[in-house]
């Protein structure tokens, strides 16, 4: 009897792979009876239900079990356990802990280059400028499978883009305004096509490529709806896609040409159109959408405004280096990393998403290798690094170069952040580098950023108060199961956000509602989708569909109002899968709910299907699960994580028959998803009682707020005339100021809003009181932040009645306000006429020489949104020149009580913090600037507001 060692070896590897695949599939789908019957030639995705994240876990297990180091191509190409086994057979013996090329010399951050001029206002203008200013500078390094990077200079990218533009015009008859769809993997061809479309005057439409070549046909069916909605004339994609052109064209009537990048070379010369900032730069479609396609229209002005706003928030420079594996169809990958590199001039090191998913440690080693200062990823990427990287893969890793490790695009988990920091701090990672952010495609990319170098801020709030009353009440230390939420920072400069109730009322801090925003990064709407565009806008504000609250001006995300499921970076609309699953034999029609559930193991969302059935036979129930699982892969390109077959009336609905997905999710997470719901009359009664209670509580809170506001206005109406008469008829300045102080104190006391005061001017006489040159008595300049029209009233109430306010000259001629200020000895200064302004400043000097205390709102004005504006230099120049100390004063709560131009006050806690006197170190301009910086730093620290000067 002869033996076949080679055949035995192959069968042994195949058995090893199949055992690992079955074990992992059984863990993910414990209710399936079919998994033990599946063989080596069955589909990893369709039959075993393994998505890309599960494949990453499978790769880790197979490498441990076989000792072979699997290349990323194995995960891209292998469709079955047998194909994976053949890959292992080819690469057996390669060490699994090695990271190829780590020790090789690598490009790090490059020297500083000049900033992109402010008058450059388009993406093509940015590339033109870089190619002219420093053509040989490395714009990006593109990594392929074998770790050999391809350097791409600005000059080379521009040449390739111009060649591609010529090809689009000559070979594809592209005209200005045409849409060009681009479905290419990460590589130079994508960028040549993207910028080439722009140079041709067209609008690029990035599409997500198929995860595996074998999925190309079904993938083209899915993206055909996007191509049709975009009205794309040309699809630039891989050569294999041309075979399916007959399939795609009927689904996308506008499509005339499917072309691979290599065929777009050698076109005739043409005159490149000149772009304007308001021209559409590209259409950003969300990934994996199976609902009605929504292409966010982004202009060059949107992109430049957003990128420059993010730069102001975090201080990114041309000396930084960004490592990215993020997909190029994703806004964080394309805009944040790639277009950010173009606008700011930092170097981009780009690897493919498969390289990361196949071996997450490559991401961190790429940071190590290039001494990267910036990188980014969704929350699930951090979970993969925590759970899927072995310690032996990290020997010698050094992450101390990182300044920013952005976490965004998905809900940010505080537990993920804590675990990631705990594991990787031993490798040099600074916790302060972890930077949770929030944004959305409708705002181009970013909307809120935390302060640079602070690290994550976690808010611990009472669960009951948040879920039942929508109030983010800080939880006491002994509270069981509180909600922990991560701050995503403050809104970008020049932008604004607000939290609104379902009725559209703007909510105060620590009240949960829908997040709305506006600003120069905001899209004009969705391409060829007027219905969705109409739903997006709330007057000048844009709805995000996300729920959250503000605390100290920082945004905390609590959930979503929309039904989109985010899974592994893909956005999934549940309706189509629900309809398809309802047609499976044995499933009750219209009784399927598809919803997300938190996956604590991966830091992302699980995809759950809850379907009603009366079938009891175990084999038939397993058939139903199998068919639903296959439908999910066909429709959305991803397997579901769990299919729950439940008794009739388990899927909760509204009275009009709509699926209540949030309620189904809540029951699922309580372990009650497969229990029949209560009879309709009991549901209606319970819902009515619960809804009435919530409405009553909300109404009471609103009425109480309105009642307080009306009470304050009534008190003001009664007090104001008497105080006004007392001030204007007072026999002396001192008497008039005492009357003003008494009146404002009574107003705040009767409104139950008396300001809390920390510190006192009386407690700390200034250094000038000792008889410094040019001063007398307790003279000082009081510099306060300016947040509301209430600031002057608050300071009048709490400061000694010897202060004089500096006011803008526009108020002087006003009948009531001007007369009142004149009677109180206010100093009116000109803001726009330089000569007059200099003369007015002399008044301040004269008052200080008389020993007065002068109050200056150095910002000059205020905004509705939180933030400390630049401080004008006048007060600081005077303080330095005349050796007068400045007393900084922080006013808190007035912006919440009476924001912007509102006329109806809201109840809030008021606080005034009086600082120690600060004196300039000299009498020249530099001393004044240094004094201004000290005062500004003090105000920022006490108010907790963002720095709008950055």
Describe it.
The chain has six domains: 5-91, Non-ribosomal Peptide Synthetase Peptidyl Carrier Protein, Chain A; 103-147 and 317-436, Rossmann fold; 154-285, Rossmann fold (3-Layer(aba) Sandwich); 451-560, Luciferase, domain 3 (Roll); 576-677, ANL, C-terminal domain (GMP Synthetase, Chain A, domain 3), CATH 3.30.300.30; 712-943, Glycerol-3-phosphate (1)-acyltransferase (3-Layer(aba) Sandwich), CATH 3.40.1130.10. It is 38% helix and 18% strand. Helix 5 (123-133) packs across helix 6 (154-172), helix 14 packs across helix 15 and helix 26 crosses helix 28 (925-943). The longest helix is centred in the C-terminal third of the chain and has 49 residues, at 680-728.
How would you summarize the topology of this molecule?
Blueprint: H1 5-28, H2 52-66, H3 72-77, H4 81-91, H5 123-133, E1 138-143, E2 149-153, H6 154-172, E3 179-183, H7 188-199, E4 203-206, H8 216-230, E5 232-237, H9 245-248, E6 257-259, E7 280-285, E8 295-299, H10 300-314, E9 321-324, H11 331-344, E10 347-350, H12 353-358, H13 361-370, E11 374-377, H14 379-388, E12 404-407, H15 414-424, E13 434-436, E14 438-439, E15 446-449, E16 458-461, H16 463-469, E17 483-486, E18 490-491, E19 496-500, E20 513-518, H17 530-536, E21 537-538, E22 541-551, E23 554-560, E24 565-567, E25 570-572, H18 575-582, E26 587-599, E27 604-613, H19 618-636, E28 642-646, H20 661-669, H21 680-728, H22 733-750, E29 756-758, E30 780-784, H23 791-798, E31 803-808, H24 817-823, E32 827-829, H25 834-849, E33 853-857, H26 874-881, E34 886-892, H27 894-897, E35 911-914, H28 925-943
Parallel strand pairs: 1-10, 3-4, 3-5, 5-6, 9-10, 9-11, 11-12, 12-13, 27-28, 29-35, 30-33, 30-34, 31-32, 31-33
Antiparallel strand pairs: 1-2, 7-8, 14-15, 15-18, 16-17, 19-20, 20-22, 21-22, 22-23, 24-25, 26-27, 34-35
Helix pairs in contact: 1-2, 1-4, 5-6, 6-7, 10-11, 14-15, 18-19, 21-22, 22-23, 26-28
